[in-house]
Amino acid sequence: MKDEESGNRLGAYLRARRELVTPAQAGLPPGGNRRVPGLRREEVALLAGISPDYYLRLERGRDKNPSAQVLESLARVLRLDDIERTYLLGLAAARPRAPRRRRPEQVPARVHELLAHLQIPAFVEGRAFDVLASNPMAVALSPRLVPGQNRLRSLLLDPEEQAFHQDWTKATADFVAALRTTVGDDTDDPRFVELVGELALSSRRFRTLWARHDVRSLDGGTTTVHHPLVGELRLHRDKLPVEDVILVVYYPDRNSDSDERLRLLAALTRTGSAGGPEPAPEESPGAERRVPPVPEG
């Protein structure tokens, strides 16, 4: 993370993506005695149609104003998708700016009313995956969805949350890539600095994923989880922006096995048999959001 800390985010991203492209993917012979994973700098330069010296200057942060044409060529060579390409262009366009002071994330009162009426798991999260509010069904689905918890921290450090996800490996990769996308050029945001610093110290998995510089959107999708009371649930996820926060809802296909099991969970929740703590309505603006990390196994 040295390049990121020194402000050379463009160079760090180029190097990380270069190391993920194999010679075969780039149409090059594998060769022998390769001392670096992925492509060499000179190979990227050759394929992108720029000089090796110029590409070296880009990676080392000595030239931070490449043309759009150069960036498009690099995106092609590095096999970037649309989200990754947009991220690359944004890194090159970023300019030094005064630190921004973001207002505390607040849950609108009408969203609390909506949460109370929804009969499916629903909660509100902030930009760094902090849970800001949730309904009883969300907490019944996962006790980690109470206000004050952080979804990424729970996913990486809580053994129960790890067992909850059918594909934990994919879930962690998706969440970390989404966090980097959300961070964007807000690298001085205190909440992001705090969370990234904590997870970098506590989780080897996070360090590995963060170093890859993956970026992607984590909006709609489908996931499968293992609930300790009702078993396997296949749920769709939608994220709906409401002012400065995100409303997240989980729901099954109608009349599916997961629909039946979610109805059973709802019945257990109404009778108090589902277990788990009651959700707090919302954190106060000054409430502490940290949860003591569980050592990673």
Descriptive account of the structure:
The chain is an alpha+beta fold. It is 45% helix and 11% strand. It has helices at residues 2-5, 9-18, 41-48, 52-59, 68-77, 82-93, 109-117, 136-141, 151-157, 159-164, 168-183, 190-202, 204-212, 257-271, and strands spanning 122-125, 131-134, 221-227, 231-242, 245-251. Strands 2-1-5-4-3 form a five-stranded antiparallel sheet. The chain starts with a helix and ends in a 26-residue tail after the last helix.
Which structural traits does this protein have?
alpha+beta; disordered C terminus; 297 residues; elongated; five-stranded antiparallel β-sheet; 14 helices; 5 strands
Task: Set down the secondary structure blueprint.
Layout: H1 2-5, H2 9-18, H3 41-48, H4 52-59, H5 68-77, H6 82-93, H7 109-117, E1 122-125, E2 131-134, H8 136-141, H9 151-157, H10 159-164, H11 168-183, H12 190-202, H13 204-212, E3 221-227, E4 231-242, E5 245-251, H14 257-271
Antiparallel strand pairs: 1-2, 1-5, 3-4, 4-5
